């Protein structure tokens, strides 16, 4: 009898390990043989620890399960899908899950992330096998035709970046995975690395075949110890199976992957700062040009994509570019893993084709605010994303649609605030965050953010309001157009959106801190 319990960090934080041990402890005295499979999370985080049992009717879900529930579950014959207040029915029929279109996360929560056999049994490495029969140029064409854009924030077409590296002559090329997931409200990278790490390894290997790169590095934030262990285990089983190494699957083509830990600097999420850190230097932004695709890691042509971008590649090679392109709208093709966090009743991960609206996500999936109060604003795209008011909740998830209203999708993280939020305090936090995280290389970011905090304090205190507001807007314009990278360049997004959509919050008297 198979029982599935997540080993995802979110599930572990609420006792998943203890639940797995308790199930095993209760099964023994009852003479029941059980096989407990540790999987990734299904993404329904409010139901964790989620326990699934394999029955003749498919997987039946129970959750959230506490230690006190385990004995009652056995008494209710939960291994056969027995009735119990925690019985959620077949997992695939839970509305939150059944309404999704899962491509990148198709295996997450289903397979054992450390098992190569499980990965292969659920369609793993079919994309790589197809790629091995193709020329590098044809692989790049497939990724280009699929319309895959970078899922890390800038939404730059992946195929163009790959083509540049392919066409640049060098004796050594690299694939670098940006796994420095530092945006507030984001965890999709972590979920893939903990729940289906082999799909990332496969995607990086395909990128290597496509561009002529023979070495890959995963730059992982040090705050992800569970992901670190899962990646190392996945790389080991991939090497043992011949999917990494000097002769990938007997093709005569080499590719291997290593993991490197970052020290937690937000600026190292910027690709050139990441490269500096990866080379053992201080994480500071590089001047561009040259682009990393031409002169990147150690001065060699380098593909830099984030986790979700690379993890989306195997399904494109497996199912074909047209299959992937058929999801989405406009220039936003495929699916996007959306992360619902903050003041939300049903927080978790939702993978959907581009085209749904914020309102659908917040209410149809998220169930409204956890507090029960009206949702006043959401911040999309991390700490540098704009605050979007209720009047913009019908904006569709599409890169161009968000840009049209002065916002950005970024990494797909959505942080929810109810009507008790102080938006002036949020604007101040954005400036303070930039000041703390700045690499210090350019004046608009390093000094502008510090001055920005001071200006907002004077504005909220009611000191010469018109002058201070004009000064804040002028400062934001300088940061937008004068900063060396997106940290300083995007900080005005949350500041100005708060000021434009919630002006009354800036005239409530002294800021309470």
TrEMBL record:
InterPro entries named in the record: NADH-UbQ_OxRdtase_51kDa_CS, Nuo51_FMN-bd, Nuo51_FMN-bd_sf, Nuop51_4Fe4S-bd, Nuop51_4Fe4S-bd_sf, Thioredoxin-like_sf
Listed SMART domains: NADH_4Fe-4S (SM00928)
Domain (NADH-ubiquinone oxidoreductase 51kDa subunit iron-sulphur binding): residue spans on this chain: 424-469
Short name of any one Pfam family annotated for the protein: NADH_4Fe-4S
Keywords: 4Fe-4S, Iron, Iron-sulfur, Metal-binding
A molecular function GO annotation: 4 iron, 4 sulfur cluster binding
Cofactor (UniProt): [4Fe-4S] cluster; FMN
Stored CDD domains: TRX_Fd_FDH_beta
Keyword Iron applies: yes
Record-stated family: Belongs to the complex I 51 kDa subunit family.
Name used for this protein in its record: NADH-quinone oxidoreductase subunit F
Source organism (scientific name): Panacagrimonas perspica
Lineage: Bacteria, Pseudomonadati, Pseudomonadota, Gammaproteobacteria, Nevskiales
